[in-house]
Amino acid sequence: MNRPAKLLLTVAVASASLALGGCGFTPLYGAPGVVPKLAAINVVQPQGRAGFLIREHLDDAFAKNRSAAAAYTMRLSLAEARYPRGVRTDNVATRYEYVLTADYTLANLPGGDVAKKGRVRVEVTYDSADQPYASIAAEQDAEDRATQEAARRIQLELASWLATGEPSPKKPQKVTPPDANSVTPTGLPTGD
Predict the structure, then answer these.
(1) How many CA atoms lie within 13 A of 92 on its CB side?
(2) Does residue 101 register a pLDDT over 90?
């Protein structure tokens, strides 16, 4: 790259960073408290291979801090389905669609009150070979790709929720019944 092109590129990058800085843009993971709160989520592993895989991917996505106490616990419920998509003339499927639906519940610790609920759905396809081992390997690869994508979507949902400010529990407000001699906003008495 020649010198004028480098100078032009440097000026363009500097201008873009100043423009973004001036408009109040903050990267998702640059928001205060997002990264430490994600690292403080303890994921409870669901049953099965997909449960193991999604917990592993979530621990990686959250950058789980094993040395600190957990602030949240996450419970997952997984539903898996496999549908034949490419069917040959002899009625044998050569392509499948694997669908993974993950419902999650994030609870505050130590109280256990629910902070956030959500659902992600991921569909991936894979080829089914005539050889049994190749078919099993393709199915397991699809399961791994689906759990990795589900973990990524859960991470993004939680990061945006934490970045925009997690809602605090609302205190019940005391409602007082209207007095018989009170006046409505229209200025008319409310009594009979």
Answers:
(1) 7
(2) yes
